[in-house]
Design goal:
single chain, about 550 residues, alpha/beta, seven-stranded mixed β-sheet, about 50% helix
Length: about 550
């Protein structure tokens, strides 16, 4: 019982450590500590080998602590029950990980024991077994991140391991295989450290303790060889990025109009939110007219900047046209489009040109359950009346790109940036910049905005593309292709960011192979756990046979 309590304590400490790697703390080394402690908790100690049920409990404890610390903003205005319920559900995926991972960790220990009697090949055998286990564990972790990020109801990929590493040394690897690959190599490094610690605790040979450390060393060496960002692409922050390439120059303005109040009540102030963004745009137009600012090619507004339906409201349409004419550029604005007069609604980004009105659009494809739409609506509303605030949004279609000023811009609206395909597909379709319009007013002063900003930074490196984040209330930012935040607003203030971008194309190896890499990791993870389970049972039977033989 003491050993079990110790395992659960180590798992809880691991979950807390992993949380520390994410904003607001952002201590990226903790992303290695968390998985390391999880492996220690799952490993055989004092002749005690945890089974699948114990592994599930350890994984659940790790996940519950991690998500409980990461997601308090979920219940900020709807109640703590939403926060605790989501943390519980997300922890179930870590329970499944733990149930399978115990077999792999056990395999590493048995492989080391089997190698002791073969002196000539012992060192090589130990390294081989440990590396195979580490790769299998990382792939198994990646599989459950993929499942968590896609099922059910589209999934919830928030807290994926890659998003802890916006300032970490392994970030360049996002451009090699995508965010899922980056998360896998972070996990592999942490698991390898954990196996080394486990070998020391079990008083194994020095080779057994050193063998796992070959993995993080190799990973760091690989990351050092991968360049980050294009030297002639990105933002200079002050209107001149200094690039010498032969690409296209695009002058952009990001508008943060702010909201009149915090919480869910801001939705009742639709006209005021629109007016705030109109006023900030007219301030920019005055600066352009006075020669204080160059005329932009594109003005980016946030998600929900005009929750007054711009396609149906003549006054809103006229105001948008006036603002676009005044600033001399199209406005890419967030609004809603009610379908057929019923409750079904599209969360839409409209490209609004002063001379032509709406000329292009992006309809949000990845909509969030229990927020933008409600599964089992009748039942949930009966149990929780506040659920009536959930939207009636439906997923849109399209490739996530719009054309403006001779440039193809990609869009991942708000939570969409957490989904790999939402960023990958537009860049694959020719997008040279990625816009992330978002509305975080319902999450107050919580870390949510900064966690989302970290995702946008990872996406910039993953696809070698400048990223523009426009938030109703913050944080808005201009991010260069190497993940650097060139400009950033404060939260809950009106502000405008402007910059010149030099666009020489975008896309990386990860843009091309990211989906295949995720699939390959998932298959590898499932296969390695099955192999470890089968071989482990076979070795256990052989051990029992050996024990039953009479001594000679």
């Amino acid at each position: 019982m003491r050993l079990l309590i110790g395992r659960l304590a180590a798992a809880a400490a691991g979950g807390a450590s992993l949380y520390a790697a994410f904003p607001p703390l952002g201590w990226w080394p903790a992303a290695f500590v968390g998985p390391a402690l999880l492996v220690v908790a799952l490993g055989p100690l004092n002749d005690s080998e945890p089974g699948a049920r114990t592994g599930a409990g350890i994984g659940f404890t790790f996940g519950f602590v991690f998500f409980l610390l990461l997601l308090p903003w979920v219940g900020l205005y709807v109640g703590d029950y939403a926060w605790w319920a989501l943390a519980t559900v997300e922890a179930l995926y870590l329970a499944a990980f733990g149930a399978g991972a115990v077999h792999l960790v056990r395999r590493a220990a048995r492989g080391s024991r089997a190698a002791r009697g073969r002196r000539a090949a012992r060192g090589l055998r130990q390294v081989g077994v440990v590396v195979a286990v580490v790769v299998g564990l990382a792939a198994w972790w990646s599989l459950w991140e993929s499942i968590r990020g896609s099922w059910p109801w589209g999934g919830f990929p928030w807290g994926s391991l890659a998003f802890s590493h916006a300032d970490g040394p392994l970030l360049p690897l996002a451009s090699v295989g995508g965010a899922r690959f980056l998360g896998a190599v972070i996990a592999a490094s942490g698991f390898a450290i954990g196996l080394a610690i486990l070998a020391l605790l079990r008083r194994a040979t020095a080779a057994s303790a050193l063998a796992p450390l070959t993995v993080p060393v190799a990973v760091l060496a690989l990351a050092a060889l991968v360049p980050v960002g294009a030297a002639d692409r990105g933002s200079g922050g002050d209107g001149n990025n200094g690039g010498d390439g032969d690409g296209t120059d695009l002058r952009v303005a990001v508008i943060q109009g702010n909201v009149p109040r915090l919480g869910l009540d801001f939705n009742s102030q639709r006209a005021a939110v629109l007016d705030n963004h109109l006023a900030e745009t007219h301030r920019l137009a005055d600066d352009v007219a006075a020669g204080a600012e160059p005329r932009p090619d594109l003005v980016l507004w946030p998600e929900n900047a005009s929750d007054v339906p711009a396609l149906d409201d003549d006054a809103a349409a006229a105001a948008l046209t006036e603002a676009s004419v005044a600033v001399g550029a199209p406005i890419f604005l967030g609004t809603i489009d009610r379908l057929g007069g019923g409750p079904d609604t599209l969360n839409t980004q409209l490209l609004w040109d002063g001379s032509s009105g709406p000329v292009d659009r992006h309809d949000k494809k990845y909509i969030q359950p229990f927020g933008e739409w409600l599964p089992w609506r009748d039942l949930i509303e009966a149990l929780f009346p506040i659920a009536e605030n959930a939207g009636h949004f439906v997923p849109g279609e399209g490739d996530g790109t719009v054309d403006v000023a001779g440039v193809t811009a990609g869009t991942a609206t708000c939570f969409e940036v957490a989904f790999d395909a939402a960023a990958r597909d537009p860049v694959s379709g020719g997008a040279q910049i990625l816009t992330v319009p978002t509305n975080n007013a319902t999450f107050g002063h919580s870390p949510m905005s900064y966690q989302q900003l970290a995702m946008s930074r990872v996406r910039a490196v993953e696809h070698d593309v400048p990223v523009l984040v426009a938030a109703t209330s913050g944080v808005s930012a201009i991010i260069s292709a190497d993940g650097t935040v060139e400009q950033e607003t404060e939260i809950f203030e009106a502000a405008t960011l402007t910059a010149d971008l030099r666009l020489d194309g975008a896309g990386t190896l990860a843009t091309q192979v990211g989906a295949a890499t995720e699939l390959a990791l998932g298959v590898l993870g499932a296969v390695t756990v099955i192999v470890a389970l089968v071989t482990g049972r076979r070795e256990l039977r052989l051990d029992r046979v050996d024990d039953a033989r009479p001594e000679r």
